[in-house]
Amino acid sequence: MSLLIRGAHQVATPTGSGARRGPELAALTVYPDAVVLCKNGRIAFVGEEAEQRNRFGEPDEILETDGGCVLPGFVDPHTHPVWAGSREDEFDRRLRGETYMDIARSGGGINSTVRATRAASSEELLAATLKRLDRFLEYGTTTIEAKSGYGLDLETELRMLEVIRDANSVHPIDLHPTCLAAHEIPPEYRDDREAWVKRLVDEIHPEIARSGLAEAVDVFCEEGVFDLQQTRRLLADANSFGWRIHLHADELTPLGGAELAVEFDALSADHLMCITPKGIAALARSETVSVLLPGTSFFLRSAWAPARALVDANCVVALATDCNPGSSPTESMPMILALATLGMGLGVAEAVAASTLNAAAAIGRADEIGSIEVGKSADLIILDAPTYQHLVYHFGLNPVRHVIKGGRVVVRDGLLTAEE
Ligand code: NIG
Ligand code: FE
Fold this sequence. Notes:
420 residues; alpha/beta; 16 helices; globular; binds N-(iminomethyl)-L-glutamic acid
């Protein structure tokens, strides 16, 4: 099965099978008037149409792009896509002056979503998740990392990870599951937090590892949630479970989560709004990806992560939505790119590389996805605009016209295709 994408004004992509750092982050390869040939789910050719004809002949299918821009599909390396209920009431309270942590301490926050998620059936959770995945896809995201973390008991954490497994098997988006049972202290342990850490270490993490439902583990390392010492205990077994590590680090307070992530050779240290110069220096010397979540800063009206300083210090920087009902209820990577450029000071080319190739590195898949190169999975988006800058220049709208996943058209003219 082959698909030829033709008539593009430009094909723009970062290149390589590993993350890009420093000045290299801005170095996109731009092919003018190029075609892309997908064959058996992979990219077989990028370049001039005449050469493609000579070498490969007639394709099975042609997608005309009418002067659009072809980019790699977005990879979203930090999402919490499985939940029930919503928290617009808390959003309103924050607009009137309460803080995210005030609300969490009063029984709201993550624990209010935990109550709704525990009460929901697996079928309801799957239906809600699939709806969100459709929106991710319509806005150009073809792969996500997906965390549990609204169960905070063994049964519901396992059910969330089963929903992620089931969604992965029926939806075009690839989901990479992460166990985030250490997302918060559940209400039943409020007065004995150490007992909750012990339960996670002794029972919940080992059971989830045995289930084979998670590839990675994450901890919300934060003042009032899990401190550095508790986080260390929670991560100590990860290697023996075959888990890679993501870490919610230095989000609301400068605890030193970034340094801890590096110490554990984590795939990623995420948020980093309060990272210190020491944390930046540690990340710069490591392979750990700094996953920045400007949607959270925007929605919580808090500081931006120091994106410019991180890139200039040679850290590997990636972008993600943090899609969740409390601090960033969006599936839109184009919105995240707008915030990363206009809010955090990245250039558009940097934001493109950070949301494709470097985002793939943050989930350990930069050799397979994240760029338009021969041999990589044919995960592509086509903008209804001639150049990649339009991704953020024409802000507030969805610029994505077509989406290709594994060589198949999954969004055509803005609409999800059922099996065509
Ligand atoms: O990444 N920081 C912890 N977790 C989420 C928020 C989850 C929620 O509020 O429901 C975050 O911001
Ligand atoms: Fe998060």
